[in-house]
Amino acid sequence: MDFLAPTTWADALAAKAEHPDAVPVAGGTDVMVELNFDHRRPSVLLDLTRIPELRAWDRADGRIRLGAGVTYARVIDELAAELPGLAMAARTVGSPQIRNRGTVGGNLGAASPAGDSHPPLLASGAVVELASVRGTREVPVAEFYTGVKRNACAPDELIAAVHVTPAGGPQQFCKIGTRNAMVISVTAFGLALHPARKAVGAGIGSAAPTPRRAEAAAGYLAGELDAAGLWDSRGALPEGLAVEFGRRVRDAAAPIDDVRGSAAYRLHALSVMARRAATWAWDDYRRAA
Amino acid sequence: MTTTIDNPATATTGTGTAGRIGDSPLRPDGTLKVTGEFAYSSDLWHEDMCWGVTLRSPHPHARIRSIDTTDALKVPGVHAVLTADDVPGLNRVGLEHLDQPCLAEDVVRFQGEPVALVAADHPETARRAAKRIVVDYEVLPAVTDPRTALDDDAPEVHAGHEGGNLVREVHIRREQRTRNEHEHSGEPVPEAPVVVALDFEVGMQDQAFLGPESGLAVPDGEGGLDLYVATQWLHVDQQQVCRVLGLTPEAARLHLAGVGGAFGGREDLSIHVHACLLALCTGKPVKMSYARDESFFGHVHRHPAWLRYEFGAQPDGTLVYGHADILFDGGAYASSTGAVVGNGGTLGLGPYNFPSVHVDARGVYTNNPPCGAMRGFGCVQAAFAHEALMDVLADRVGVDRVELRARNGMAEGDRNITGQLIDSAAPVAELIGRVRDMPLPATRAADPDLRDLPGGVANTTHGEGVVRGVGYAVTYKNVGFSEGFDDYSTARVRLEVLAGEPVATVQTAAAEVGQGLITVEQQICRTELGVERVVVHPKDTTVGSGGSTSASRQTYVTGGAVRAACEAVRARVLARAAAAVGHGGLRLDGEKIVGADGQVVAGLAEVLGTGAVDETVEWRHRPTAEIDPETGQGDAHVQYAFSAHRAVVDVDVELGLVKVVALDTAQDVGRAINPDAVVGQIQGGSVQGMGLALMEEVVVTEGRVRNPSFTDYLIPTILDTPPMRIEVLEYPDPHAPYGVRGVGEPPTISSGPAVAAAIRAATGRDLRRVPVRPEHITGV
Ligand SMILES: Cc1cc2nc3c(=O)[nH]c(=O)nc-3n(C[C@H](O)[C@H](O)[C@H](O)COP(=O)(O)OP(=O)(O)OC[C@H]3O[C@@H](n4cnc5c(N)ncnc54)[C@H](O)[C@@H]3O)c2cc1C
After folding, report:
1. Can you tell me the distance from the alpha carbon of B535 to that of B522, in angstroms, rounded to the nearest whole number?
2. Within 6 Å (CB) of ligand 1, which residues are found?
3. pTM score
């Protein structure tokens, strides 16, 4: 097994172009587990931890550009105000050790339906920046997940960053696990209110072959709020609306039965989480007036 | 005496290594473990060593048509590839029955059964080579539901086994005839105005020790070897290893390596014979160390159980009869299934008085993972059922649940369901009363921290759907080995002068698995011999057997042996002193020999100056007896240990998530030799029992384990672990050394049923299976 450790982004892209089967390593919290369990045996490992720009985040064009190598711990410490949904999700990832090493870029690279970054990224309409020696391109996160643990990265591409618009309204993230910490999600839900656009974003995890948006449910909620003039009046969220939103979020899912939970339970839990999250987010919105 | 520990974090009173019984000296391994410096068996290393790996069966049941090792042997760096054909001695292991090949012969009987071994320079090389071993399997029909294992048309797991797939059955019958017999005889059923019944199911728990199976076998160049291994009982391992290797005990010496938890999972062999076979074959030291996934296949689990219970009672709740039918899934090999069935049967109705008893307990062979010893040993499963049924009965007759238990609870002088006299403290009413009377945790804050809510920071509720419930349980268990087993321990104590100071060296082969036995041995020596310096000899087979570190028995049995050896040493020292001073009536005090008048007649170092005193003693507890095969009556057990728990839980009834808010307990320990260690056992045991109630299950479908990893086999984290108020009662058992009563297992037995009861109380659901899953609570 070869171990490549480029120190510049250009070298990393060149290495990936030369070794399209090279497996990138960021925090290693997925890669090393797979190696340990002998689930994969890559011929080349491409260490990305020595590339400074991957570990940086900054603001550009009204968006936050989060380098692929920014850890969960830093998202929590540095970005909780601007990316509250992602920070809430980051808080639920693994243990302190995992949050110190694990990265959002790694979560995108793994593209597991259970990855906790995905629902908030979907809810806030994030965009993934992919790069190769051929150039860079931007992929809306909803199009990034192409199958179970597969993503839109071409063999010669690396994830450079993810672009997220700072929250313009309340966000929520909820995740079901069968213990109270350090648990892979049984199912998860991310919600973002975008009052400026009178829009709602919703993402679901562990309830379909890929993370996915609950677009129709989000559109329904935004539309009903609009129709009732609630975006402007900031009146109370009708209970029935939250319940119906939960139902529609559930309808967006296509979960399976597995050792972590039954499909029926996942659907049920999604509807409850979506209802509660909508209620909390709306209460926050009203309070923020 | 009662000690209440409110805030366990401040309970450490250690003062260096000094300490007699009743003190809590710091453990020598404690700081090392906390700082990550303790050498576990997986840290063993030897120059020139090779690595052994195991090829395991992918099938729950299959015939091996052939094994071709040619390609594996061609891999550069491979030193040996072994199969059953290479076993020099008898290819059979087993704690109770020699029914398990150490490498499969013609048939594999569970997924994960060892089939072949590889030794190579590097573990990766060995793993790659193992993948090149070609095994031609013919898949056979498997028995995967134990409830059908005894059916006439069930496939035989062990062809020709007398009794088919039955490993053991136990029948307990007392006094009045049972409903069944009455029905068969046409007589009326025994009268009980109130009858309650339920079915319960307990999932397969794993010991989930953090230190995976590992060890190092070092050949001595003369056909023998030294095996360094993490285990619970060196001598029984040695016997088993010798039988398979065809070696004498002199030629196969075992040494205890650093043990990272055991809980019963190290009573059977794991790498032992395999590493030795490879070492003898290659002539090189061989290390084996399982990864986490392999560990799930490398040791037995707790038996899953199916339990059907019926209690008859008077209208005031006084029990009239108890009826239980308990089925344990033993998996592919017997391991200690027989003894687990014995416990499930003899102790299966809990610590209550029943005038009339009808209990059947069975353990069966299936093609599921083998099950054997785990903390609580047969009592854990039964406790979930009898405690659930006691709640049903209490509600039916309108008696408070605690009061019902107190009213029916055993007391000293009562006889249990096998007719054995309980001849030391049995404070059932007091224990359950004490946990009831402890202060309840505060009600949930109006704006609670997420970490205090079900789901924690995963942010699934801010209080919506959360309902509090309280549940109680009281249970009992035998201490030590039972049913006529010759249960003893050996201790050697040597007292001598080193660098001018008296020093005692204590040697036993009793395994320290994290429970604190080393400290206990030192405390006993200091107490009996009055010396400051006590060296604990490394644990190995150069001294007689210490018996198993299981059944909550080591402080009792090895503690008894150490005390007896100290007494023998003391008697010789005093005799020597008496000869020197010309009169008797002497005693040891501090490091002095003191006469009857209190005057110092000699220093201990002086008396020892003429030579070391060295005594080895084999010590036994009171004998137990086999139970009657028809009636199950007999004095099966040597001691009983009682504990009670009260669990307070918050349940999000809409999402089915649980937060245990408090898990309070009272336990009689007879005498706390090391109070901090006692509290440690109670905390750990309580969490392990809670884990079974809430989340711990090896999920097996059609004979295949679906979650062999810590990603999906969940054990409680510190955020799942509630505050515990612990009341330690000390009612000395007059028959036990210092009055001690086993401590390690009881908390694992009573905590889970209390948690399950609290969830039932919060949800109003029956919840007749553990672990309780969110699906069960929400009913979806
Ligand atoms: C104990 C434990 C607990 C965990 N708990 C959680 C949890 O609660 N929630 C959760 O979502 N996850 C969890 N995980 C999984 C893991 O921590 C996360 O997926 C994490 O985000 C991975 O980040 P990493 O930097 O460690 O990725 P790595 O392991 O380094 O990489 C992950 C994948 O992404 C690829 N990759 C990494 N960087 C790039 C890049 N720049 N371009 C292209 N591909 C790239 C890698 O090749 C690999 O396929 C847990 C893991 C462990 C070991």
Report:
1. 7
2. A 23-31, 33, 48, 68, 92-94, 98, 101-103, 105-107, 109-110, 115-116, 153, 158-159, 184
3. 0.96
